[in-house]
Design brief:
By secondary structure, this protein is of the alpha/beta class. 28% of the residues lie in helices and 26% in strands.
Length: 180
């Protein structure tokens, strides 16, 4: 048994011992929408991708797989009032809509803990950037995020499988950094 696998079993054992809830094998129970966001409309990533202007200025929440984040923002985003170093752009798989949120201690902790594939729910107001992106280089709308809720972490087995597939695909390439 590998060291990392043994450590994960140790962590699960400690969490069960101290009484923390552990994700069930048959799938996670979805967390309810917090009461203060009950009036927010749930919008799918498909709807946001096809017709974002339909939800402009609406209070919405969107759910999807976390795809990553960036702290360096494009010029047109900065010209719209956001700053590199102060704001962060989160991404949800399946949509190009950036989820812009102000950095603070809670957000820094969350960004360190999030892994690709983690299911998240973001709450906020859909807005249009004040500046147009150059030649269609980016989205015209963004989610002005007030809160991010973590719903489920990626399954360790499927995550390990995707890493193994990526390594198998990269075996024949010249870029050996992919294998690390």
């Amino acid at each position: 048994m590998g060291t990392s696998r043994m450590m994960s079993w140790l962590v699960v054992g400690v969490l069960v011992w101290i009484g923390c809830p552990v994700q069930a094998a048959d799938g996670p129970e979805e967390l309810p929408v917090p009461e203060k966001y009950a009036s927010y409309q749930e919008v799918s990533t498909k709807e946001l991708k096809l017709t974002p202007e339909e939800f402009e200025r609406d209070r919405i929440h969107v759910k999807g797989a976390f795809a990553g984040f960036t702290v360096s923002l494009p010029r047109y985003v900065e010209d719209s009032g956001f700053r590199t170093g102060r704001d962060v752009a989160l991404a949800i798989a399946g949509t190009a809509l950036p989820i812009l949120v102000r950095k603070d201690d809670d957000m820094n902790t969350l960004m360190l803990a999030l892994k690709r594939g983690t299911t998240i729910r973001a709450f906020g107001r859909l807005r249009e950037f004040r500046q147009e992106p150059q030649k269609g280089s980016g989205p015209k709308f963004y989610l002005d995020c007030t809160e991010v809720q973590v719903l489920a972490t990626p399954d360790a087995k499927s995550h390990a499988g995707s890493i193994a597939r990526a390594r198998a695909l990269a075996k024949g390439t010249r870029n050996k950094r992919v294998l690390r």
